[in-house]
Amino acid sequence: MHSVIEIFKDEVYQFKADNAAPHIIDAGANIGLSVLFFKELYPEATIVAYEPDREIFQLLCENVGHLPGVELHEAAAWTEDTTLTFFKEGSLAGSTEMDFLSKGSTVLVRAERLKDAILKRPVDFLKIDIEGAENAVLFDIVDCLDHVRHLFFEYHSTPGKPQLLGQLLELVAAKGFRYAINGAHGPALPFVDKVPHGFDLQLNIFCFRE
After folding, report:
1. Where are the beta strands (DSSP E) in 39-198?
2. pTM exceeding 0.85
3. Cα dist. 65→18, 31, 32, 36, 60 in Å?
């Protein structure tokens, strides 16, 4: 329900394309709610969607695999073509970076270099919500962000690891984007409430060109 509200009520991925058939890359498509929103917004859109969790990918296929112009990849969006250890969570927080449930439930998943997909053709909207892996992927795709018109990424900060928000904001600004930040998830009283496990900060970052 959180995703339904965020995507369809709050319309967090709403954007204005320059044409009736924008090209969209959805890294971290989950069960396909974002894909459904994009196709509702632009029925002629072409969408390349990534989801590494096999069980969730099957739901993604059932939900949106029949839609025209939708290409689904059972893979994690990453910095190279490889195999990664993936912490299964079964809902929204499956990750290559964080064992959200602390159960040690891991599987090996295929990963594909996101940069290769971006370089194939101009991207009207690039969505990256990959549970912490954006901290590596964004640095890998920096030199092809000129191909991207709108960029959305969810930033995740992990306790005990360096926070890279400043570097990421400098990165997108240097590529000509302005940005807006909202949708913060974190402790209400950061000076006294520590987050020992999970992400201690999540932010929605909207990057756009004037």
Report:
1. 46-50, 70-73, 76-78, 82-87, 106-113, 123-128, 148-157, 178-185
2. yes
3. 25, 11, 9, 10, 7
Compute φ and ψ for 173, nearest 5 degrees: -65, -40
Instruction: Give per-residue pLDDT as tens, 94-135.
Output: 677 766 666 767 889 999 999 999 999 999 999 999 988 999
The answer to whether the CB of 34 falls within 8 A of the CB of 26 is yes
Q: Give the C-alpha separation, 78 to 88, whole Å.
A: 17
CA 166 to chain centre: 18
